[in-house]
């Protein structure tokens, strides 16, 4: 089973993230859910953006690296939701021992010299205002060029954070399907 580091979205370490971690633990995985917002949790995107901007991208990345440090010796599967996915991707590409990357709702840009052979799975709404199709397609091509084994699953009509039952984007059918596919992906580690 996998050792997973699961990063939260810009909304903070919400119950949906903790519930996802418990679901993964019940499948036998070791899951860690660092709180990059120091306990702050919000329900509105504007409030999440405000916290993210207050902390700053550099500091969020520093906090993510510090959260990963105790677990990297045996190889991690990095995972994240939206903003957390972007952070997970950055860490996975920098970690030569990374075993995989599970992205729920979000990606990040890739450096030109990115190189990895890890399996990557992305679950994203279709369409998604935060992750437009053109961006997703370019991201996919860059990940493939970097050497990653990439699978993309798009959920037609779902909102951006469709796995969080406490947000307006929630889509129970898409969430169930996404987590079932993700669980199969993680079973291989």
Output mean pLDDT. Answer: 95
Major sheet attributes? 6 strands, parallel
Rg value: 15 Å
**Architecture, according to CATH?**
3-Layer(aba) Sandwich
What sequence of helices (H) and strands (E) makes up the elements? Answer: EHEHHEHEEHEH
Give a quick precis of the structure.
With 189 residues, this protein is α/β, with parallel strands linked by helices. Helices cover 41% and strands 18% of the residues. The protein has six helices and six strands; from the N terminus they run βαβααβαββαβα.
What does this structure look like?
This protein is α/β, with parallel strands linked by helices and 189 residues long. The chain has one domain: Alpha/Beta hydrolase fold, catalytic domain (Rossmann fold, 3-Layer(aba) Sandwich), CATH 3.40.50. It contains six helices and six strands. The chain has helices at 15-26, 45-55, 57-68, 83-94, 133-146, 172-187; strands at 3-7, 30-32, 77-81, 100-104, 119-126, 149-156. Strands 2-1-3-4-5-6 form a six-stranded parallel beta sheet, with helices on both faces. α3 crosses α4. It is globular and about 35 Å long. 42% of the residues are buried. The mean pLDDT is 95.
Task: Give the key terms.
189 residues; alpha/beta; Rossmann fold; 6-stranded parallel sheet; 18% strand
Walk me through the topology.
Blueprint: E1 3-7, H1 15-26, E2 30-32, H2 45-55, H3 57-68, E3 77-81, H4 83-94, E4 100-104, E5 119-126, H5 133-146, E6 149-156, H6 172-187
Parallel strand pairs: 1-2, 1-3, 3-4, 4-5, 5-6
Helix pairs in contact: 3-4
């Amino acid at each position: 089973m996998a050792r997973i580091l699961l990063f939260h979205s810009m909304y903070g370490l919400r119950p949906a993230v903790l519930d996802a971690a418990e679901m993964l633990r019940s499948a036998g995985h070791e899951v860690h859910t660092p709180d990059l917002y120091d306990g702050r949790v919000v329900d509105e995107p504007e409030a999440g953006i405000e916290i993210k901007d207050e902390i700053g991208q550099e500091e969020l990345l520093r906090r993510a690296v510090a959260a990963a440090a105790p677990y990297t010796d045996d190889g991690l599967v990095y995972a994240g939701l939206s903003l957390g996915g972007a952070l997970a991707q950055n860490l996975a590409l920098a970690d030569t021992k990374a075993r995989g990357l599970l992205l729920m709702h979000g990606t990040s840009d890739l450096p030109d010299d990115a190189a990895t052979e890890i399996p990557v799975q992305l679950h994203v709404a279709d369409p998604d205002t935060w992750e437009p199709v053109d961006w997703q397609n370019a991201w996919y091509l860059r990940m493939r060029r970097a050497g990653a084994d990439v699978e993309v699953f798009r959920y037609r009509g779902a909102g951006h954070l469709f796995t969080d039952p406490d947000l307006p984007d929630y889509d129970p059918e898409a969430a169930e399907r996404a987590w079932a596919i993700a669980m199969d992906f993680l079973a291989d580690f």
